[in-house]
Amino acid sequence: MDSADVILVADVGKSRCRVELRLGNEVLGSADQQGFPGLGMDNGARLAFELLADTASMLPRGLPAAFPEGSLRGIGAAVAGVEASAANSHALAVLLSERFKVPAAVLSDATAAQLGALDGAPGTVLIVGTGAVAFRFDDAGALHRADGWGPLLGDRGSGRWIGQQGLQAALQAHDGGPATSLLGAAAALVGSPAQLPAWLAESDNPARTMARFAPVVLKEAEAGDAVARGIVDEACRLLVNTVTLASGETKQVALLGGVVKSEFFDGLLHNALASAGIEVVAALGDGMDGAALAANRRGLLQERYIHRDGTA
Fold first, then answer.
1. Helix (H, G, I), strand (E, B), or coil: what is residue 79?
2. Spatial distance between the Cα atoms of 245 and 146, rounded to a whole number of angstroms
3. Distance of alpha carbon 25 from alpha carbon 22, whole angstroms
4. How far apart are CA 259 and CA 131, in angstroms?
5. Taking CA atoms, which of 27, 117, 131, 268 is between 20 and 30 Å from 255?
6. Within 84-181, where are the H helices?
7. Band of pLDDT at residue 150, cut at 50, 70 and 90
8. pLDDT at 3
9. pLDDT at 65 over 70
10. Buried b (16+ CB within 10 A) or exposed e, 226-239
């Protein structure tokens, strides 16, 4: 193994922190644990650094990450909240570089996803997970974004949105509204639909909790429930609008995120995008691949959105 080719790659999100040690395209080892609130906090850089370093220490013994001096070539970290604080993002890059003695690159999870999906080329990516955002980098490297504004103000059509709409439909059915199989599915979570508000209020992350109901909505929609299908169709319409706002005249998009891993939903979204004249192109990679690309290559089209520690 040529240690000069080894890089440490991280995806430090709000729900999960994942690290991989890579040699080229080969993953030598990986580790993960819970995520953190985001870089926008006052001590966000320190929290992200400690979480990433701790997760890296969980890699299998004997890997180069266990012996950082002279063993790594670089670090690429896709981190939630980068757009909220450039100062914290740069501070995190410096902390990582000082700890591991290699150049470090810090970028937003959405930027990393776009980099990974299109291998650094310009274009649009739609990410549909707990949240939803469309990111496009144009030929000049300028960012064009639509949605991704969080559960209170945006993320329309996301996993959280689908799950929330499903839970609302269940309570409406409980009140005597349109009948739906979602009522029984929601009641199974807590024993009685009337307990759903308290159950959700007690959650440490209500958006993520609602997103976990999205697969149930998709399942019931595929089984023929009219209310669930209406929710899913509206989600597709909202996501098409998000892509349209971000993509400009390009009319192409790559899809990423946990929700589009559903073959049923992916097919519906493909059809909705095609009806709007938007072609779906294959994603070449994901956010971890984008973080690896940022660690391996400088002078990228998206360079102005990547925070580096300043080392050569």
1. strand
2. 6
3. 7
4. 10
5. 27
6. 86-100, 109-118, 150-153, 159-174
7. confident
8. 47
9. no
10. ebbbebbeebbbbb
**Tokens, residue 206:** 């209500």
- Please name the residue that has the structure tokens 């080719």: 5
Q: Quick check: 205 pLDDT over 50? A: yes
According to DSSP, the β-strands at 6-12 and 16-23 are antiparallel
- The per-residue pLDDT for range 174-195, each reduced to its tens digit, is 999 999 999 999 999 988 899 9
208: Cβ contacts below 8 Å, ≥ 6 apart? 15, 130, 160
The pair of structure tokens assigned to 199 is: 């159950």
Copy the structure tokens of residue 291.
Answer: 């973080």
For the chain, give the mean pLDDT.
Answer: 90
**Residue whose entry in the numeric block shows the structure tokens 């609602």:** 210
Tokens 């979204």 locate to 269
Distance CA 267, CA 218 (A): 12
Q: Residue 124 CA to chain centroid, in angstroms? A: 15
Q: How many CA atoms lie within 13 A of 2 on its CB side?
A: 4
Question: Which pLDDT belongs to residue 37?
Answer: 79
CB-hemisphere CA count at 13 Å for 37?
9
Average pLDDT in the 200-210 region? 89
